[in-house]
Amino acid sequence: MGIRKGDPDALEEFYDRTSKQAFGLAYRILGNSASAEDAVQEAYLMIWRQGSKLDPTRGRLKSLLMTIVHRRAIDTLRSERGQRAAGAPEDLDYLAGTSPDPAERVALTMDREDVRSALGSLPADQRSPVELAFFNGLTHVEISEKLGVPLGTVKSRLRLAMGKLRIALGNV
Amino acid sequence: MTCDEVNDLLGAFSLDALPGDEMRDVRDHLAGCQQHEGVQDLLAAGRSLAFEPEERDPPTSLKARIMREVHGETSVDAAQHARDDRGIFSWLRPPTFQPALIAVLSVAVIGLAVWVAVLQSSTDDAFVRTLAGDSPAAGKLVVVSNENLAVLSIEGLEPLASDRAYQAWTISDGVAESAGILSVENGKASVAFQLDPSVVDSVAITIEPAGGSSRPTSDPILAADL
Ligand SMILES: [Zn+2]
Fold this sequence. Notes:
By secondary structure, chain A is mainly α. Chain A has helices at residues 8-30, 33-50, 59-80, 93-96, 102-109, 112-120, 124-136, 140-147, 151-170.
């Protein structure tokens, strides 16, 4: 109810419920507190300013928060590397999707241990490109250079890995 | 891009690990192709990874900073935020906006592919405008620049006498061109039309004689500048 009515208490409650995960994600990507704080702050303020019609009781809001934090953090990383950001922070339509999805179920019911174990179940040669993409913001070409593996191999490993993750997370 | 090429890139795509132009090529292909099953699931699996890292306590100063900002903005009319439609939630807001769009696109000849294109457009090539005016109705215009496509969606339209109709217009250099007559159901109407945002200055709705006019004959009840 609250955030959609512009109720600061509701945002505060949402923050208390979600900020450890949000900050954990930002810190994992950025590796330092100051940048991670910036990413997290921007994400909550974006929710606050634009979330007037969202229903914060649903998992979606948390899932969305995490998506925004991720995108902000990756954009920061990429711009520190002198690369063009992949998208404006509000370019989340595609990422956030439109229907109940596994990420939403994660936010509602799953422990992060489930995601961790799904990721951990991948063979290292598939897990590592996924992590480089998601947590380091590398493109497939950069992953190929970094790992010294042909681009075609990186593409197929990413594809295999994501297919497995989809199944693993869908079956929880 | 062929289907095979796209399939080849879906893993990287779901992790946002493609250079921008390739990212766009894949989106464009997916928008017009029905051959790729489970892409949304793949994207969702990508997003789930955000829950993998260890939780970490943020410094208490962070909360204080955020809440100070929030309280500072509370005095601002909440409607101001609602009017800020360039943001993410204009795309995500299912209760009113998206079903309306889907409704349009299912009746409009352009079909689902356009809807997917709208959904998948990045902010580089799509934007939303809110129509404002002297009317209880509220309207939104989604423009997909690279497709020269616009979808107008309006709610809260008052019933008109049977000899009147709502008509949409694009206005370029002061010249209005009809974008279609709105077919209103339960106060809601939507229409999709071609719109070149580099040419069109604004979009407006007027009340016209049933059947429509070739030029507006009354003042707009709603309008939005591009
Ligand atoms: Zn295809």
